From TrEMBL:
SUPFAM superfamilies: ATPase domain of HSP90 chaperone/DNA topoisomerase II/histidine kinase (SSF55874), Homodimeric domain of signal transducing histidine kinase (SSF47384). Its EC number is 2.7.13.3. The keyword Transit peptide does not apply. Residues 59-111 form the HAMP domain. Pfam families: HAMP, HATPase_c. Residues 236-436 form the Histidine kinase domain. The keyword Transmembrane applies. It comes from the Bacteria. Keywords: ATP-binding, Kinase, Membrane, Nucleotide-binding, Phosphoprotein, Transferase, Transmembrane, Transmembrane helix, Two-component regulatory system. This is histidine kinase. It comes from Dokdonella soli.
């Protein structure tokens, strides 16, 4: 509890000095019978105590300032254990208490931060993904256990030049790093071929450029997904086969009875239905065969006007925007197959047929062909899986249309992108190189 403030102490000291000076002046005037002597005595009586009191009051303030200066230097260097032991019941005491409380809070935050860093380092060190952080000069500043095992036989990498480490690494890894993009590569590892995914990211750390390399082993995950995909393929094919074979088997039995009864009119209907189901099954199997045996594209210059005119004879669309002045460069047959599938989906989306749009935009060294509709669009789950083979939300869908589109686009060195439109509907963008590479 504060007893007397610093301001009160100064006022009390000044009052005492004035009283003492007045008393000495009066005594000197009476003793020496001279007002000048009294005045001189008053000045001395007021000045000397004032100087003494000022010194006594300034000394702890000066000591506190020196202590605070040292504390600021300690805090700057990360040492938060510094505290001031002065105990006063005035404003200086309040400042000391506030300083010591600040030091306590900083010490606790420092301890919590250390614990979080320790947890993060433990997680990063033991993650199966190899992580290597390289500074601007090309030296490794951080590498976890997986990176040491993969790139340096378990030995530390800190301080080593990354390019020298890469030079001794398997060639597929060196080529993947040299491409400066994310990608997959396979190398012999532990007596078997392993598939890895390389991710590269540039960023600034403490104001300095750094690059982070992440190398993730994918063989087990790919094998698991391959098994899951094959199971799904088998389910889809089995479903389609049963949908066709069950009625064919039933119709064969009915046809036998009709033939025995001589009912040729109804027998013709049976044969027509069997033929229709057989034709559907044949088309289904051929679709899978085309997907599995997609030939390499043969890009050539394609003029836009005749290409789109031929495309419009399959499915109608409204051309959005002007066409590029330069021709496209792609496999005409394969890209036409992709766009026919996209236009078919647009017409089946539930929107108006005259709302289906197609636009071609030249963007640098890429050309973007966009097919848009005003249907119901896609949910986030469907958007995330729509390009996967055999994934379909349609009861009779094979799940190959968009997967085939992605396969053809990637074979050309391009990509496919799906997005919902702001006012409803879906836009599918086919991105292709605009010139020979």
């Amino acid at each position: 509890m504060r007893m007397v403030s610093l301001e009160g102490k100064l006022a009390a000291a000044l009052a005492v000095a004035v009283v003492v000076a007045a008393a000495l002046a009066a005594c000197a005037t009476i003793w020496f019978a001279s007002p000048w002597v009294g005045a001189a005595a008053a000045v001395l009586a007021l000045g000397i105590p004032a100087l003494v009191f000022a010194h006594l009051l300034a000394r702890p303030i000066a000591a506190l300032i020196r202590a605070l200066s040292g504390s600021v230097v300690a805090f700057r260097d990360g040492d938060f254990s510094f505290s001031i032991g002065a105990k006063r019941a005035d404003e200086i005491g309040d400042l000391v208490s506030a300083h010591n409380e600040l030091g306590r809070v900083l010490r606790e935050e420092r301890q919590h931060l250390f614990q979080r860093e320790l947890l993060l380092d433990t997680v990063v060190q033991h993650t199966p993904t190899a992580l290597v952080l390289v500074e601007q000069g090309g030296h490794v500043v951080y590498a976890n256990l997986a990176a040491r095992q993969l790139l340096n036989g378990g030995r530390p990498l800190n301080g080593e030049r990354f390019e020298e480490i890469v030079a001794t690494a398997p060639q597929p890894l060196a080529r993947a790093i040299a491409r400066d993009v994310d990608g997959l590569f396979s190398v012999p590892f532990e007596q078997e071929d392993e598939t890895f995914h390389l991710s590269q990211r540039a960023f600034k750390l403490q104001g300095q450029p750094h690059r982070l390399y992440q190398i993730k082993r994918l063989t087990r995950e790919l094998a698991r997904q391959e098994v899951a995909t094959w199971k799904k393929v088998i389910r889809v094919i089995s479903h389609e086969l049963n949908n066709s074979l069950a009625p064919i088997r039933s119709l064969s039995h009915s046809g036998r009875e009709l033939a025995r009864l001589g009912d040729m009119k109804r027998l013709t209907t049976v044969f027509d239905t069997v033929e229709e189901r057989t034709r559907h099954l044949e088309g289904f199997i051929q679709g899978y065969a085309r997907f599995a045996k997609l030939p390499l594209p043969r890009p050539q210059a394609v003029e836009w006007v005749p290409f789109l005119d031929a495309l419009s004879r399959h499915y109608a669309f409204r051309l959005e925007g002007a066409l590029p002045a330069s021709p496209g460069f792609f496999d005409r047959v394969q890209v036409e197959q992709v766009l026919i599938n996209l236009l078919k989906n647009a017409h089946e989306s539930g929107g108006a047929a005259d709302a289906v749009e197609l636009g071609v935009v030249q963007h640098g060294r890429e050309v973007r062909i966009e097919v848009a509709d005003r249907g119901s669009g896609m949910s986030e789950t469907v958007l995330a899986n729509a390009l996967l083979p055999f994934y379909s939300t349609k009861r009779s869908g094979s799940g190959l249309g968009l997967a085939l589109a992605r396969e053809i686009a990637e074979a050309h060195g391009g990509r496919v992108h799906l997005a919902n439109r702001r006012d409803g509907g879906l836009v599918v963008t086919l991105v292709l190189p605009s010139e020979k590479t």
